[in-house]
RNA sequence: GGUAGGGUACCGAAGUGGUCAACCGGGGCAGACUGUAAAUCUGCUAGCUAUGCUUUCAGUGGUUCGAAUCCACUCCCUACCA
């Protein structure tokens, strides 16, 4: 993580310049407060899974910038509210989760956030709203908090209106009260004056700002991040096997790098701004590269994003492994960049394509191509592998496999290694041991 | 509690006794063209020891030579009424 060197720029200007800001309860007020010394802010995370994926990263990067500017992040896991399920942006109620699972998930998420934020004492903190929400007493809550919410107003919220047709229970309807209470509580107990969240959180955030003002007589601020879509309007962050995870057990570093390497041309500038820490003038320059040179910008995006999540060394390995397979976009370093990707030695010969080992005994037993595809994790089932071969998408090194009954033999290996490909991009190195 | 309408593959949505592993759209995968891009065109999209077999249309049981389709009960959702 870069060392926060005395930043003279207002955090808000950085966020705005890089495209992080969408809606804001009071931008001027927020700017003034942020330039008036360290401030505390919070962002909520939903502990319904045990790993973050790239769809969660936008708020994380924003938090990183704010921390970089000297402000203090609170990452709130909604252990209490997850027991309810936020109706925002959902067409139906979500399954309610058990406390144990939520706690496990919260731990895993904090571990991942730690790669982006500094959780050292006095720096970022992690809180679980279950700690205060489960102690609420119904009568007190209804009287003190419930009395401040107007039902007609709540009903007019977009998130509620879209559920009016399909149904919404009182449980979910109450969600904004609890999230608002979080903000109030964090302001009172921890002097937290800012809440950030996704676009779909706007209603909840505004409600929290108002509740806090009414209960504490203090102005607090809220802002939302834009909804990240690809240039073709589809959801960002999903790919072949679903989401792109930060957990290397679910998405390998190589695949993580490849995800960024393969984004649309049109999204490069935007993504460099969000998911790297390169200066914006460089971002704009790289993003406007044309024709094949744009590929260098994608390599840089891939390296930078991967380095943040998995470290410099891993990112370089992924970059080299991929570039060796597909070609280097700028082998001679013609395109100027401040990215540490420059340090990569394009002539070294490490082998970091994900590798699967098979034993000589497997071969002797008669290993078929279908079984190998499944074993390598390139196909979900034998039928899937059959389809791949029928469609002409399976290669052993550079030879297309046309026979689904092909039996793998030692002749397929060169120096004990053969590259198995499923389509152009998915590939595994098969190593004979 | 009453009445009515629903629950189909990753999502949306047809199908209302056989020709249904189930139209179509989205998504995804693969092929061609490319720049590991986009757009476009084409094919595929339950599993298997595979010209056949097995498991799928909320659940359980039943009718039938035969059911996603008919019947009974159960669970869940929605609307109106109370």
TrEMBL record:
Q: Name one GO molecular function term.
A: ATP binding
A Pfam family this protein belongs to? tRNA-synt_1b
Q: Specify the superkingdom.
A: Bacteria
Q: Which UniProt keywords apply?
A: Aminoacyl-tRNA synthetase, ATP-binding, Cytoplasm, Ligase, Nucleotide-binding, Protein biosynthesis, RNA-binding
Q: Give the GO terms filed under biological process for this record.
A: tyrosyl-tRNA aminoacylation
Chain positions of motif 'HIGH' region: 47-56
Report the residue ranges that make up the Tyrosine--tRNA ligase SYY-like C-terminal domain in this protein.
348-425
Listed binding positions for ATP are 238
Enzyme Commission no: 6.1.1.1
Annotated residues that bind L-tyrosine are located at 42, 175, 179
Q: Which InterPro entries match?
A: aa-tRNA-synth_I_CS, aa-tRNA-synth_Ic, Rossmann-like_a/b/a_fold, S4_RNA-bd_sf, SYY-like_C, Tyr-tRNA-ligase, Tyr-tRNA-ligase_bac-type, Tyr-tRNA-ligase_bac_1
According to the UniProt record, one GO cellular component term is: cytosol
Q: Where in the cell is it found?
A: Cytoplasm
Q: Which reaction does it catalyse?
A: tRNA(Tyr) + L-tyrosine + ATP = L-tyrosyl-tRNA(Tyr) + AMP + diphosphate + H(+)
Coordinates of motif 'KMSKS' region in the sequence?
Answer: 235-239
The record's similarity note reads: Belongs to the class-I aminoacyl-tRNA synthetase family. TyrS type 1 subfamily.
Protein role: Catalyzes the attachment of tyrosine to tRNA(Tyr) in a two-step reaction: tyrosine is first activated by ATP to form Tyr-AMP and then transferred to the acceptor end of tRNA(Tyr).
Q: Which HAMAP family match?
A: Tyr_tRNA_synth_type1
Q: What is this protein called?
A: Tyrosine--tRNA ligase
Organism, by scientific name, is Oligosphaera ethanolica
């Amino acid at each position: 993580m870069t060392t926060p060197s005395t930043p003279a720029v207002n955090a808000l200007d950085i966020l705005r310049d890089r495209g992080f800001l969408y809606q804001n309860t009071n931008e001027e007020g927020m700017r003034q407060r942020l330039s008036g010394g360290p401030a505390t802010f919070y962002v909520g995370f939903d502990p319904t899974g045990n790993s973050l994926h790239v769809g969660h990263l936008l708020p994380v990067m924003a938090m990183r910038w704010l921390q970089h500017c000297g402000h203090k992040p609170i990452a709130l896991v909604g252990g209490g509210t997850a027991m309810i399920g936020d109706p925002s942006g959902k067409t139906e109620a979500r399954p309610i989760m058990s406390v144990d699972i939520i706690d496990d998930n919260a731990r895993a998420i904090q571990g991942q956030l730690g790669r982006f934020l500094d959780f050292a004492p006095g720096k970022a903190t992690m809180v679980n709203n279950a700690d205060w929400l489960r102690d609420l007493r119904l009568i007190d809550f209804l009287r003190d908090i419930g009395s401040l919410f107007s039902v007609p107003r709540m009903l007019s919220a977009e998130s509620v209106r879209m559920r009016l047709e399909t149904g919404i229970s009182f449980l979910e309807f109450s969600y904004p009260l609890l999230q608002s209470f979080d903000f109030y509580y964090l302001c009172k107990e921890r002097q937290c004056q800012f809440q950030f969240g996704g676009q779909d959180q706007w209603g909840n955030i505004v409600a929290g700002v108002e509740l806090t003002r009414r209960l504490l007589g203090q102005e607090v601020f809220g802002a939302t991040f834009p909804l990240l879509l690809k240039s073709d309007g589809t959801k960002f962050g999903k790919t072949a096997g679903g989401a792109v995870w930060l957990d290397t057990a679910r998405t390998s570093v190589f695949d993580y790098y490849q995800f960024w390497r393969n984004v649309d041309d049109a999204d490069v500038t935007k993504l460099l701004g969000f998911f790297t820490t390169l200066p914006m003038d460089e971002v704009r320059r790289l993003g406007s590269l044309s024709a094949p040179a744009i590929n260098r910008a994608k390599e840089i995006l891939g390296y930078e994003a991967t380095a943040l999540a998995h470290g410099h060394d891993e990112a370089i390995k992924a970059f080299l492994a991929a570039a060796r397979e597909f070609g280097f976009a700028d082998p001679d370093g013609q395109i100027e960049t401040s990215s540490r990707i420059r340090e990569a030695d394009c002539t070294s010969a490490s082998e970091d394509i994900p590798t699967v080992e098979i034993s000589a005994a497997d071969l002797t037993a008669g290993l078929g191509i279908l079984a190998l595809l499944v074993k390598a994790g390139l196909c979900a089932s034998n039928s899937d592998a059959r389809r791949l071969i029928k469609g002409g998408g399976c290669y052993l090194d550079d030879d297309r496999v046309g026979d689904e009954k092909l039996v793998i033999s030692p002749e397929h290996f060169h120096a004990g290694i053969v590259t198995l490909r499923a389509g152009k991009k998915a590939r595994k190195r098969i190593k004979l041991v």
